[in-house]
Amino acid sequence: MRLVERYIFGTTFWAFVSALGVLTFMIWITQALREFDLLTTKGQSLVTFLAITGLGVPSLVMIIAPIALFIAVLYSLNKLNSDSELIVMSASGLSPFRLMRPFALLTIMAALVVSIMSVYVMPWSFHALRDLVTEVRSDFLTRVVRPGTFTTLDQGFVFHYRERGPNGELLGVFMQDRRDPEKVSTYLAELGQTINNEDASYLMMEKGSIQRQQPNSRDAALIGFDSYAIDLAQFGADAGSITYKPRERSTADLMRLKPDDPSVKQQYGKFRSELHDRFVNPLYALAFGLIAFAALGQARTTRQGRSSAIVTAIIVVMSVRIAGFAASNLAARSASGVLVMYAVPLVSVVVTSFIMFGPTIPLPRLPTFPLMRPRAA
């Protein structure tokens, strides 16, 4: 790599790192504020708070890295144009292919980072986050909830117990689940205690009853039990589900799933969309890098405005990313949407490459045959 290429690569690389760090930090702050109640009302430590909010960073990097690359390439090319360096490089014989080499190298590096995050790190982080949140909810239930008070664990989910027994068990347990207005359930038990295993945490209730309101009816079904276990994971967004969500499963697990598997049959489309989305994400880094280079890769004088080119590039990137999200939703409903998922970034790469280098690529000359040659006059 020549000195000028190392200079361009260094400028773009640090711009990419800065943009990625700033954007990730800003979005992480907004998400951390949503979980601040872990410290205030749920009595968790600062380490637990940072762990829960930090496990969401890989998913942020996966989405933000292509955007940060787009910003870095635009910044570097605009800087080279503003300082007239790009004009000098072009006048000295630097070809567009050679100018593109440092940007292409950084684009490939960004695509590799997104690949690692998307295929390996992001699924692991969501899996670990699910386990940690379940543990926090179990700890909140047994240590923070005070006896004799009605505590809202989730929107529409109320928990209460009368007092603690000599061995730490909960006496006089009352729970009411009104999250689904058509399926209101009320739990009463003489005794309750938490049980933890490798997969989840449960609240084991003994000697009680369940009252379930029937949909569109005033009648209620009353069920008595000697022992009944409730998964504590249902206190959050994954209510009513014991299996891991698509994002919480490893890529290898998603590749082994079958449509007739009872645990994924109803959500097989979401699992399919999630699997292919992990392989499509790196392609957006390639597409965004090329779009930025196509917008400002040509040398221009200071009198030639670059604002319109930058605005056009931003609009194109936004349109491509929105189309990608729409394609993911389509793939969750139909298998044909998988082709659209790959087509969105790949078509952007092909069209942008043709716009940049299509007219300059020499086409092979077709052979001529005797019957095709013009006759002599």
Automatic annotation (TrEMBL):
Keyword Transmembrane helix on entry: yes
Coiled coil region boundaries: none
Keyword Transmembrane found: yes
Transmembrane segments: 7-29, 49-78, 99-122, 279-297, 309-327, 339-363
Stored InterPro entries: LptF (IPR030922), LptG/LptF_permease (IPR005495)
One Pfam family cited in the UniProt record for this chain: LptF_LptG
Recorded GO CC terms: ATP-binding cassette (ABC) transporter complex
Record keywords, A-Z: Cell membrane, Membrane, Transmembrane, Transmembrane helix
Topological relation to the membrane, as annotated: Multi-pass membrane protein
Any one biological process term the GO annotation gives: transmembrane transport
Localization (cell): Cell membrane
Superkingdom of source: Bacteria
PANTHER family: SLR0882 PROTEIN-RELATED, YJGP_YJGQ FAMILY PERMEASE
Name of this protein: LPS export ABC transporter permease LptF
Organism field: Lichenifustis flavocetrariae
Gene transcribed to yield this protein: lptF
